[in-house]
Each structure stands twice: as structure tokens, then as C-alpha cells.
Amino acid sequence: MTLRVAILGSGNIGTDLLYKVARNPALALVGMAGIDPASEGLARARARGFAAGADGVERFLDDHPDLDVVFDATSAHAHAEHAPALAARGLRCIDLTPAALGPAVVPDVNLDEHLDAPEVNLVTCGAQATVPVVAALSAAGPVAYAEVVSTVASRSAGPGTRANIDEFTVATARSLETLGGATEGKAIIILNPAEPPIMMRNTIYAETRDLPEAVASSTVAEAVGQVAAYVPGYHLAAETLVADGLVTVFVEVAGAGDYLPAYAGNLDIMTSAAIRVAERYAERLATT
């Protein structure tokens, strides 16, 4: 089944979504809603033949009542205002903001548990990049403690990211516990100003108990492969290290370069995860 979808927000993330949705056979893009008539995102949507409204979300939804799913790529504050309007119209929402009004979801970790939720939240880029690995290790054996360090290019961190660093670390750490299965989690984000900009790099430390090296390595490799199926630039940057009950994983994320630069893997993994969620919605509807 093909879902009719719309994108709220014409900034970097919304514009990257534009390209990913437009080429996906499971999704039919109706258009993009924004508030700035001069935004590049709306201009690009219009040039590709999609509706592009600059009069706000309510007006766009009134003009396009036959939607199935909406991607919200605005801000946490804006999403809190959008949510009631979406709910009143019975529209499902994939929230890419830090609003966290719906259940936290990482595709292929816990999405199946929330396929009927009216909206889901994609937590943070750090969670999308690291929770799948921690969850896989937790399934293989208890993880007493998980710590992740996500390093992203300073250029890829906009005002919203910079204003929500505390929320990022708290939400990511919590997801290592609630979704990843670690008894305790901690998250750190580093904005690296290097030129040329670096790719998103994630170091994952997991304290395990008596997990054989071969099992840990194969478990990590399988988890990375599952994420790479929908985030092609997601890969192991170095061999997984296992010593004295500590598993250390090095994961790098390169963006697909649809709209965002390749170094902005931290943003690309969010839009790729959003597309994966929408694809699962389409698959689910096709079998019901």
C-alpha cells in the first residue's frame, strides 16, 4: 500500500526528507508545509511539483485532508502545537523533534510494539546510532552499563541541537536503558569544529558478563548490518574490541548526500529512520 504523506518543516531535515520520500515507492508525497515563503525547502518542493504551503500547518492540513502520515521536522515547541491538530484529524505522526510526546522508537528494535500508536518519537541521532548495538548485546547477555560518545561535525549542529544538548544526553542515556536494555546508561555528545568536517562517529562501551569475544563481535556485526539496511552510510569504523568484560564498538555514519552533506550523518540517520518507520506503516496496512 502507498501512503500519502506530508512533511512539516522546510529546514534541513525536512528538505532531506523531501528527497528520500520522493524516491520511495511505498510513499506518495503530497507536499511540505512551512512558515517562511522564501525557504529553500519550499522552493525545492514546489520545483518538483509538490504542494508547498507557507501559511502554517493548520491551513496545509485543511487544504490536504486525504493524508495518511505526517513527518514533523520542525521543533519541539512547534510539534507540541501541531500534535492536537494532527490528532483531531486522525493523522499518524512520525516526530523527528525532541518533543517526545509519543513513545520512543528505534526501527528494528521496538517499532513493532508501537505500530498502532498515533505518533512515535525518534529520540535522538545518538540513540538511533547506538541503541541497536546495545539492544543486540543485551539480548546476548546482561549489559550492566552502557556509555556512548557521539561526535558530530560542528557544522551539522544547528541552533536547535545546540539549545537542546542537555535534553539530547538525557534522552539518549534513557533510551540505552529503556530500549537498549542496559541497567544503566550514559551519553555524551561532542561538537567537533574540525575542517574539513568529520563524519558522525559513535563509540559504544558496554559492560557485559562472560560474553565470549566471538559472540560479542558477531552480535555487533549483525546489529550494524540491520541498521545499514536502511542507513547505507552506517558502518563499523574499526574492529570491535572485547576485553575484561567490556565491549567497545566504533560506528561511523556517513550521510547519503540527498540534500544534507555527507558529513551530516547525525541528521541523515534521523531522516532515514523516519523513512523506515513509514515503510513499516505501509507494510502493515498492506496486510490488514
Question: Which features characterize this protein?
Answer:
288 residues, alpha/beta, Rossmann fold, Dihydrodipicolinate Reductase, domain 2, 2 domains, 6-stranded mixed sheet, 39% helix, 24% strand
Written description of the protein model:
- The chain contains nine helices and twelve strands.
- It is of the alpha/beta class and 288 residues long.
- It has a six-stranded parallel beta sheet with strand order 3-2-1-4-5-6, sandwiched between helices.
- The chain is globular and about 60 Å long.
- It starts with a strand and ends with a helix.
- The relative contact order is 0.15.
- The model has no long low-confidence stretch (mean pLDDT 96).
